[in-house]
Amino acid sequence: MEYRSLGRSGLKVSTLCLGTMTFGEPEEGSFMHGVAADEKTSSAIMNAALDAGINFFDTADVYGNDGLTERVIGRWFVKDQRRDDVVLATKFRFRMNKGPNGTGASRYRIVRTVEESLKRLQTDRIDLYQIHMQDYDTPEHETLSALDDLVRSGKVLYVGASNYTAYRLVESLWASDKHGLERFASVQMQYSLIARDIEREHVPVCTRHGLGILPWSPLAAGFLSGKYRKGQTPPTGTRFEKWKERYGAFDNERNWRVLDAVLGVAKELDASPAQVSLAWLLARPAVTSVIFGARSAAQLEENLKATKLKLPASCVAKLDEASAFDLGYPYDFIARIQNRW
To answer: Which of 53, 116, 125, 286 would be 1's cystine partner, CB 3.0–4.6 Å?
Structure first.
């Protein structure tokens, strides 16, 4: 397993990060009902991940029903006594409580969400505490100031962001520098061969300012796993069998072209489509660690092989060409003149 620094920090994390959104079987009606792993399986996956060298786990307070996933992880920490082997990341921002202050990233709310997560996780600190999405209603300085206090208290060690616009990310970095506050070490964003939008502005921002990119949904909700074929209904037991409306959003010519390229490279290199998709991301600029999920030990073992797969330049070119996307103005204007953006 390879380890990289989280942005400019001295923290070393594995290049694959275990995403835990599927841990714990939520009640019927929940987003993840029917596509999650039970607690016993989740514990087995976490142990197997650590044994394979993955030291970075990502979760969030909203995963599962009422903090279910954090509680599953917390019980595993107590039972298996492996807390100090894990760089633990969790997130706050979305609604967890009733009332006008039950959501958001205000100081009032942050001091509550961190205590609730610490209790569910049965730990004394959160290694990477991330705002799950920028909050238009709260000044960035207020959020950063509250997070800075948590770092100084020892309850949080590093802070990060997720689902931020590039301009807000730069504003945050400016506020940290101006006021001497803890700065974001990383930013967690949707990034895959299907969704390359962050290459317009986020990748340049992170490269220039030293933020580590943590891609989520690297297999585009499983679309790049190789389970799906154009013109066919989703296989039984897959996420898209349940999420038919979301599957429809993937059903377009560009995405099938990308999948064809992935399948072709996978065949050429005797690898799985998932391994190819993960390996492509691992080689992108500013990427620190790729967050992937697993509902079984077999899925975990298969995805782990991506860390040893080095894509030849010819394969990267095929994938880049197939997944090329519309830059839009002014990026296409700039690209025509300087051949880059």
So the answer is: 53
- The pLDDT tens digits for 98-113 are 999 999 999 999 999 9
Single-letter residue type at 237: G
What is the spatial distance between Cα 64 and Cα 291, in angstroms, rounded to a whole number?
18
Map out the domains of the chain with their CATH numbers: 3-338 (3.20.20.100)
Q: Hey, what long-range contacts does 198-207 have (CB within 8 A, 24 or more apart)?
A: 200/166, 200/327, 200/328, 200/331, 200/341, 201/166, 202/166, 202/169, 203/284, 203/285, 203/286, 205/166, 205/169, 205/170, 206/7, 206/286, 207/285, 207/286
Are 203 and 229 in contact by the 8 Å Cβ rule? The answer is: no
The residue type found at 317 is A
Which residue's structure tokens are 């082997």?
Answer: 85
Asked whether the predicted pLDDT for residue 33 surpasses 60, the reply is no
Query: Which of 3, 63, 108, 158 is the catalytic position?
Result: 63
Q: What is the DSSP string of 217-269?
A: -TTTTTGGGT---TTSPPPTTSHHHH-HHHHHHH-SHHHHHHHHHHHHHHHHH
Q: Which distant-in-sequence residues (6+ apart) come within 8 Å of 98 by Cβ? A: none
108 is catalytic: no
Q: Does the pLDDT at position 29 exceed 60? A: no
Percent of the chain with pLDDT over 70: 93
Q: What beta strand segments (E) does the chain contain? A: 3-5, 12-14, 16-19, 56-58, 87-92, 126-131, 156-162, 186-190, 212-216, 290-293
pLDDT computed for residue 248 by the predictor: 74
Q: Exposure of 4 by Cβ count < 10 A (0-12 exposed, 13-18 middle, 19+ buried)?
A: middle
Is residue 31's pLDDT more than 70?
Answer: no
**Average pLDDT of the residues in 113-137:** 98
